[in-house]
Design goal:
Layout (H helix, E strand, L loop, with lengths): L1 H21 L8 E2 L1 H8 L3 H13 L3 E4 L2 E4 L4 H25 L2 H18 L7 H18 L3 H13 L1 H8 L2 H19 L3 H20 L4
Antiparallel strand pairs: 1-3, 2-3
Helix pairs in contact: 1-3, 4-6, 4-7, 4-9, 4-10, 5-6, 5-9, 6-7, 6-8, 9-10
């Protein structure tokens, strides 16, 4: 039981630290120590050590002679990840058009409704919730492809550009356009139209990439 609890805490710490790094709370080049993280998160150094090891495997933390340095995700990394997504996400959408279930369509519609609700709130108040609904929409898309390989690969890439997505959807005009693009993908999936699902997905990715390219971060 004690071992299970330690693993559970380490998982939670890993997820928290990963999120904090990918959202930019800890900046690229910042030096972290086990002692500092233990103090900030209120846990012993054992789960911190396990979480850090996993973050090193993810290549977003790097052990150096002066401590653990935040590698994070650079602008160049982000652009490379979009290039990869442009090659495979359209294929995932095409598969999803053939495989998506009525329940998954219902969940996707509810996600879009929530995305619209948060967008309609005062500008700047709901950027995190909008980003989370964006994540949920894409997660459903990847899941609906019916392919574990597509799902795992695309989910990881989408999560790693969290900071850039947050900055993008904080722009109200981009948030509105993103919702419109999501709705176009949804309608193609609902019609089980693989050609249109792939086309709408690729256009969404191009628009999102171009929006992020214009940002100064």
């Amino acid at each position: 039981m004690r071992e299970h609890k330690t693993i559970s805490i380490a998982d939670q710490i890993f997820e928290q630290l990963e999120r904090d790094i990918l959202t930019g709370k800890y900046q690229r080049g910042e030096v972290l120590s086990e002692l500092r993280l233990s103090s900030e998160l209120g846990v012993s150094r054992t789960p911190i050590r396990e979480a850090v090891r996993r973050l090193e495997q993810e290549n977003i933390l790097k052990e150096t002679g002066r401590g653990m340095v935040v590698v994070g995700i650079s602008r160049e990394d982000m652009m490379d990840m979009y290039e990869i997504r442009l090659h495979i996400e359209g294929l995932a959408a095409r598969r999803a058009a053939a495989n998506i279930s009525d329940n998954q369509l219902k969940q996707m519609e509810e996600t879009l409704d929530l995305q619209g609700f948060y967008i309609d709130r005062p500008e700047g108040d709901s950027a995190e919730q909008i980003r989370d609904m964006d994540s949920r929409f894409h997660e459903l898309l990847y899941e609906s492809s019916g392919s574990r390989a597509f799902h795992e690969t695309l989910s990881a890439l989408h999560k790693k550009i969290m900071k850039y997505r947050s900055a993008s959807v904080s722009k109200h005009s981009r948030a509105i356009r993103s919702l419109e693009e999501h709705r176009a993908i949804y309608l193609a999936l609902k019609a089980h139209d693989g050609d249109e699902a792939e086309k709408a997905t690729l256009q969404h990715l191009i628009n999102a990439r171009d929006s992020m390219t214009e940002m100064e971060m």
